[in-house]
């Protein structure tokens, strides 16, 4: 079994992969002050919950955009699983070319998303990841990342709204029943949802206008499910896209 770990700014998502099957996923809050023992205990508990033992783990692959977490987390894998994990980064073969100004600046999560989207759904493909930040990356028909876009995530925007105003409360990020809100909380939910959805659709249309070729749009990320099925501009929502990409990367390098 392969353990794939996505270390993001808000959450660490751990996936257990048995061949091509994802047999378990777990999410914990990203905290830089967790020790290796704490991470190791969580991993072994998650394995147990899924009916596995540490000996069942063949290898581990990590994609991280939070460098300050890596030392403790990597140490936990070595200590509790007896494995030196593969890390998505420079020198790793992915089957994807990167043709942007600074290829090293592309996040390892975005790279894994693009690998998963291209080899699962084909290209050209626009890959949208709705997380702490929202990213769009374009992979052409030959498997080359040629351009991308980064903006705030909806939860980040929401936190700024209630964090910078004296009387606005924290609200759940969800699709409202109607845009015709009659209370403060529902007004915030409607404003956040429809403003963000409109931005997504305008962004995708602009890619269509400037690229002059048909392409699929594949979305992923924990917050992507909020908009799933509410726009015909997104062709596929795949919450496990990064794990598919990491599995493909692992197979190319093992």
Automatic annotation (TrEMBL):
Function: Catalyzes the phosphorylation of pantothenate (Pan), the first step in CoA biosynthesis.
Keyword annotations from UniProtKB, A to Z: ATP-binding, Coenzyme A biosynthesis, Cytoplasm, Kinase, Metal-binding, Nucleotide-binding, Potassium, Transferase
HAMAP family: Pantothen_kinase_3 (MF_01274)
Residues reported to bind K(+): 129
Pathway: Cofactor biosynthesis; coenzyme A biosynthesis; CoA from (R)-pantothenate: step 1/5
A GO cellular-component term linked to this record: cytoplasm
UniProt name for this protein: Type III pantothenate kinase
Gene Ontology molecular function: ATP binding; metal ion binding; pantothenate kinase activity
Manner of cofactor binding, per the entry note: A monovalent cation. Ammonium or potassium.
Signal peptide: none
Keyword Transferase applies: yes
């Amino acid at each position: 079994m392969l353990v794939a770990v996505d270390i993001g700014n808000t959450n660490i998502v751990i996936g257990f992969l048995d061949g091509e099957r994802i047999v378990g996923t777990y999410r914990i809050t990203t905290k830089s002050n967790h020790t290796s023992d704490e991470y190791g205990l969580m991993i072994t508990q998650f394995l147990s919950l899924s009916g596995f033992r540490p000996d069942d783990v063949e290898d581990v692959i990590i994609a991280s955009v939070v460098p300050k977490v890596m030392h403790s987390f990597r140490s936990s894998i070595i200590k509790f699983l007896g494995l030196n994990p593969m890390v998505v980064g420079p020198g790793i073969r992915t089957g994807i070319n990167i043709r942007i100004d600074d290829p090293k600046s592309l996040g390892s999560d975005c790279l894994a998303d693009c690998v998963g989207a291209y080899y699962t759904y084909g290209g050209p493909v626009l890959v949208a990841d709705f997380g702490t930040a929202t990213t769009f990356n374009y992979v052409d028909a030959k498997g080359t990342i040629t351009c991308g876009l980064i903006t705030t995530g909806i939860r980040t925007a929401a936190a700024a709204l209630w964090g910078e105003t004296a009387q606005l409360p924290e609200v759940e990020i969800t699709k409202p029943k109607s845009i015709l809100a009659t209370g403060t909380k529902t007004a915030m939910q409607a404003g956040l949802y429809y403003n963000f959805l409109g931005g997504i659709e305008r962004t995708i249309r602009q890619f269509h206008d400037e690229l002059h070729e048909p392409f699929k749009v594949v979305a992923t990320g924990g917050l992507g499910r909020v908009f799933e099925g509410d726009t015909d501009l997104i062709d596929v929502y795949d919450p496990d896209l990064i794990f598919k990409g990491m599995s493909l990367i692992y197979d190319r390098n093992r």
